[in-house]
Batch of 2 targets.
Target 1
Amino acid sequence: MPKTPYNVKEVQTLKSGAPVRLGGLIEKVKKLVTKRENKRMASFVFEDLTAKIEAMVFPESFEKFAGFIHPGSIVFLEGKVDIREETAQILVSEIVPVSEGIKRYTQKVEVTFFPAGTEEQTLKKFQELIAKHPGTTPLHLKLMFTGKRAALVKLNNEYRVAPEEAFIKAAESIFGPSSVTLS
């Protein structure tokens, strides 16, 4: 599995055989059947904000992930680049629904807030929220100060969280919209 996720435009510049992971939208699905063994497979167009690319799902992977292969599905793909006639495509080995991908691929959760004026009760509420959503993802606090200065505080292992939608919404209700960043 690649260390860095790519976007479609970047994938189109990689060499054949390069492992990739990228997120986007499935569209224009074609269900196919192999000639020799009469097994099901699929091809589809995969799109993100940068470009579109053809993706192929062979029978072994198709059996596992067929439920995610339909137009409009927002997913993460893992696979390898295949270059045919100077055109890149993705040979898909795994399809991960976006909700599972967030849990699987998030390496840290960063919560940004202004400590000046933050009440002790607010911090206790946040501490309770952390306790309700234990996980394995490191939690960082980005403390904002006047003059565009900031301090990043990496919390110890006691404060690891699950980067779930419920945690994100609750944290943003405490500290404001867009205060939570996943990376």
Target 2
Amino acid sequence: MDTKLKIIIIFSFVYLTIENLINERQKRKENIVISGDKGSIWVTITLIIIGNLLSFSIAATNIGRIYYWETFLLIGIIFTTIGLIIRIGSIMTLKDFYTYTVTKIEKHELVETGLYKRIRHPAYLGQLIVFIGISISTSNWLSIVLMIASILPGYMYRIKVEESFMVEHFGQRYLDYQKRTKRWIPGII
């Protein structure tokens, strides 16, 4: 296996470990009032794992290989960095209202500042961009397709669950927020 691919896999493992640590930290929150996750976290995590396994498995072969490693590695690093900035910025904007699962906490408020002013799910957008960047860095078009095709349905399901939960708990205020914002990309979707 190519050294660059090994480095990419190690980085991905470290990233997923950090995400898991964030999840474990959130589980210790004592101010959770109600959960409405409906298993969406496990659907999303399972599809992320499948996406990574498929992406790296095909990247380890010559099937779908694009022979411009350095260029695609650089593009992948740029995407991953942008995704991390968006994800971390989104989590920091939510502060104590950030939870890893779909839950309502005590004194929960609808956050409409930072990226949330225009996008309802910037943390998911950031994470999706991270995974796209990781797959681009493998320099394999099939790896990119397999990653996106595997993880996108998980995010779509999770957003559906989360938005239903938010409407249930914030009512008209969240419906108005939906009208003013897009799910992932301002002005598009």
